[in-house]
Amino acid sequence: MMAEHGKPCEAQEATYCMNGATCYKITSVNALSCRCTENYKGSRCELLQLSSRFLNDQDTGLLAAAIIVAILILVVLGFVIYYTYKMVKTNKKIKNQEYQNVKSKA
């Protein structure tokens, strides 16, 4: 992607760019510029560009649906645990009252 107004750098300027980038001189402003290789960026190609994967619309929709389903399952599970605990506590209370009634009659 060398600019139309750019020309290849001279031998002593070729080391301006890093990581295998191509150096060229922009003649209109007398400045050096670099054409970076695929994995680098920056004015001198000095920065490693981390690869990233973007989700397409279908993957994003599936991910959102999976998260919603997981949250619903956790909410339902929370209610089940809460009501089970409440029922066990109530049953213990009833049994304790029955025991106290039997004990007081004896």
From TrEMBL:
The keyword Disulfide bond applies. Residues 5-46 form the EGF-like domain. GO terms for cellular component: extracellular space. The keyword Disulfide bond applies. Keywords: Disulfide bond, EGF-like domain, Membrane, Transmembrane, Transmembrane helix. The chain crosses the membrane at residues 62-85. GO terms for molecular function: epidermal growth factor receptor binding; growth factor activity. GO terms for biological process: epidermal growth factor receptor signaling pathway; positive regulation of cell population proliferation; positive regulation of mitotic nuclear division. InterPro entries: EGF. Disulfide bonds join C17-C34, C36-C45. This is Neuregulin 4. It comes from Kryptolebias marmoratus (Mangrove killifish). The lineage of its organism: Eukaryota, Metazoa, Chordata, Craniata, Vertebrata.
